[in-house]
Design brief:
By secondary structure, the protein is α+β, with helices and mostly antiparallel strands. The chain has eight helices and eleven strands. It is globular and about 55 Å long.
Length: 245
């Protein structure tokens, strides 16, 4: 877990276009004091990912930019970055798409997953990654997507992420304020200790009413939230015992 990942989580969960924080509030979110350079140099707040700007990546990776910084009153404003309109790519071809057979470190092959066709609207495949929790599969696909924690193959929790690898790592080392991560970590560790099999299903591309959604589409948070909600509803209708709140 990165030093500034809690800020990324916090901003990802804020729905407002503009989020204003004073430095003391920001430090409470992070759990530590900001470095002295943050209070004295405007360059520290530059929207740059290059170099050692891991702090800037924490807000840029969740689609925010610093638009106002007042060192006198110690206040910063994060605004949602303006994204280009998403143009729907051509419909998915009739033939079955290729899926990479990823492998876990232990050598266990990742299954291709069972085809899903919910009322002929959402069509997708869920590659399944075996997981010896709290270790997480190292071959998770990068980028945005929908994920589903499973116990003995049965879905228990559905979530969305702008960066899947980083999001799944948060379940391994959750911060004290990350209540969902803490709740899932305790559940997964307990069920695994009881001899249950833990795995992850990952959804990174799909067809919704003949429109193909890929990583570009899923990089838009409202799109991911919509698909996440759709999947949760359909799994509940199928009788799955989800712990989503």
């Amino acid at each position: 877990m990165g030093k500034y990942d809690r800020l990324c989580d916090y901003l990802s969960n804020r729905t407002e276009h503009k989020v204003t924080l004073d430095f003391s509030q920001l430090e409470r979110v992070l759990g530590f004091e900001l470095p002295a350079s943050a209070s004295h140099h405007r360059a520290w707040w530059a929207n740059e990912k290059a170099g050692n700007h891991s702090h800037a990546r924490s807000w840029l990776d969740c689609g925010r930019r610093v638009t106002e910084i007042d060192l006198g009153v110690r206040r910063v404003v994060f605004e949602r970055a303006v994204t280009e309109p998403v143009h729907s790519p051509p419909p998915l071809r009739a033939e079955e798409p290729e899926y990479v057979q990823a492998r876990q470190t232990s050598g266990s092959a990742v299954t291709k997953g069972t085809p899903v066709d919910w009322h002929a609207h959402l069509q997708a495949r869920w590659p399944e990654f075996p997981c010896a929790f709290p270790e997480v599969p190292r071959d998770l696909p990068p980028g945005p997507g929908i994920y589903c924690w499973c116990i003995d193959g049965a879905p228990i929790y559905v979530g969305e992420a702008e960066e899947l690898r980083r999001r799944i790592q948060h379940y391994r080392t959750p911060g004290p304020s990350q209540t969902t991560n803490l709740r899932l970590k305790e559940l997964l560790e307990r069920r695994q200790s009881e001899g249950c099999r833990v795995s992850l299903r990952i959804l990174t591309e799909m067809t919704l009413d003949s429109v193909r959604l890929d990583s570009r589409s899923l990089s838009v948070k409202p799109v991911r939230r919509f698909i996440e909600a759709w999947v949760v509803v359909q799994l509940l209708l199928e009788g799955c015992d989800l712990v989503n709140r």
